[in-house]
Amino acid sequence: MAFILPAGSQGGLVTGYVGTSATSGVVIRATTYTPQGTGAQRSVKSTSTLDAAAGTGARTITINYLDTSFNLKSETITLNGTTAVNTVNTDIAYLESIVVASVGSTGGNQGTISIFTTTAGGGSAWGSIAANDNKTFWAHHYVPAGVTCYPLSLVGGSTVTAGGLTINRSGDPSNANSPQLNVAGTYIHAGGNYVRHNFEVPIPIVGPDFIWLVERPTAITASTAYGTFEYIQF
Fold first, then answer.
1. 20 to 30 Å CA-CA from 174: which of 49, 94, 141, 227?
2. What's this model's pTM, rounded to 2 decimal places?
């Protein structure tokens, strides 16, 4: 039977990876992310001079973010190498992703591109794209206000160590007292292998909310874990 998407629905996929060397649970993100929770003007810069308007690396990036009312927005910025460039928007509170939007001859960002908490590269870096990744490989998703999200599937695994994959949610991200909950069980995978699960029964997650993947390795052996989930929301 064909599945007919509701009018105005949006589909998406988020994916990430993370290095592991312990048996504690770890969020599947390639780089550190620290949500701010308050809207402000931010700034971005690279660790390489090649990531600039006429450079061979990344030339522009797009910041996909939510404001404090959990409206999804975006802004595209032209990089200036190791010199910080301020955002135009002043309401950036939570990051969905940062993606390289245009490049020079190398085809990717040559340095680590970071977004800073204040203008002119001030404050601290609260999100970044690792060198040559072209995007923040963060296996997380913010559900905007007025939207219900339905995870469709998840897949995850590792290069070396066996582990268990979970999909978690926090409720309203602005509420510091919201518990972090496992949405739908734990999916075990062998080392050097992966597991896939399709959600046959829809799990409605009403926005505003925050969803992310967690890997819990079974050994302290160094490994890299990967995770992806697909969703539809309307």
1. 227
2. 0.95
Residues 6+ apart with CB under 8 A from 2: none
Q: In the Cβ-directed half-sphere of 81, how many Cα atoms lie within 13 Å? A: 7
Query: How confident is the model over 75-92, as pLDDT tens digits?
Result: 999 999 999 999 999 999
Residue-wise pLDDT for 132-147, tens only, equals 999 999 999 999 999 9
134 and 128 Cβ atoms separated by less than 8 Å: no
List the beta bridge partners of residue 198: 153
Mean confidence (pLDDT) of the chain: 96
Which residues have a Cβ under 8 Å from the Cβ of 78 and sit 6 or more positions away? 53, 59, 60, 85
| Domains detected in the chain | 10-30+138-233 (2.60.120.230), 43-129 (no CATH)
Parallel, antiparallel, or unpaired: how do β-strands 43-46 and 94-103 relate? unpaired
